[in-house]
Amino acid sequence: MKKSERLVAEKFLLQRIFEEDPDFVDHTMEAFSLSRSTVYNYINRLQENGELERVGGSMPYRILYKTARFTLDTSRERSEDRMFARDIAPLLADLPANVQKIWRYAITAMLNNAIEHAHASAVICVVSRSRLCTIVGILDNGIGIFRRIQQDHKEATGDVLTTEEAASLLYAGGYTGAPEGHAGQGIFFTSRLMDHFAIRSDMQLFTPHAEDVADDGGERFRGTAVQMALDNDSTRELSAIMDAYIDPDAGFVRTEIPVARFFGGAFPVSRSEARRLGAVLEGFREARLDFSGVDEIGPDFAHELFAVVARQTADLCLIPTNTNDAVAAAIRRAERA
User: Fold this and answer.
1) What is the pTM of this model?
2) CATH 3.30.70, applies to 253-336
3) Pairing, β 317-321 against β 286-290
4) Structural domain 66-238, CATH architecture
5) Is 236 exposed, middle or buried (0-12, 13-18, 19+ CB in 10 A)?
6) Are β-strands 204-206 and 133-140 bridged in parallel, bridged antiparallel, or unpaired?
7) What is the average pLDDT value for the chain, to the nearest integer?
8) What is 3-63's CATH topology?
9) What are the tens digits of pLDDT across the range 93-139?
10) CA nearest 272: which of 319, 305, 318?
11) For the CA atoms of 71, 74, 75, 80, what is the dihedral angle to 10 degrees?
12) CA–CA dist 104, 174 (Å, integer)
């Protein structure tokens, strides 16, 4: 088998192991017409290269990552682009151009948040790569993102938010505690660019991806920890993600809310919950409300959001998606009211 064909077969094998396919050997044999001994030769080669580790058990191997760690002393350096270009970009230089662009945007945006908003003295960036994907963690020892949102919101409105409510303000995009210098879009777009994205601070988790909730260890972290992961062969394009939400003339006017995540997995029933959701949509023209994972909604919630709020913001189009029959019926009743 040619080297290029072998590399494709090895990557297929790694993917099967990553997905914990118990028949990873047989499936690789079938996909590439290989003998069992050849597949095990590949496994041995991957172990020798430090890409696989034998651990035993029902899934006898696991993927290994090559990891690099960098620390930014904010008293000496406050330029996220320099850190990226000097330390991180060389580690990603062999990735497709579209993937490099995404990582440059995502990492510099998250570093900037840590440098300018967290009041952190140190920011750590950890880059872990396998042949399949890249994982980046950015950790700071600052105030903590949700505590910062709580403080800013109290100063601006006098209202005291829970940490869960503070996290919910990030889902629509456009929230910032420093409107004179920031548009508040970095977290929103980064979370849509990544395969996996999560922010943890204290005991609170922010993620638009329901599957990432199951991975939450509930660990207390005093500062802010951001974790991002992206397939090395992702076909996602930075410009396409931006264009989905940004109007060339009007700017960032389209958004989407994972309703289940916005309410922490709770069953939204009250008018105050609807008003809280409506408040984060101010300034948008179109909002897709993803009801995946929401089994039902209360009639007061539905009426307040789809009748009262909808009438008060006539220039905002609310688009419910992924509704089950019960949720769809409640919305229809509210819209007819």
Assistant:
1) 0.90
2) no
3) parallel
4) 2-Layer Sandwich (3.30)
5) middle
6) unpaired
7) 92
8) Arc Repressor Mutant, subunit A (1.10.10)
9) 999 999 999 999 999 999 998 888 778 889 999 999 999 999 999 99
10) 305
11) 110
12) 20
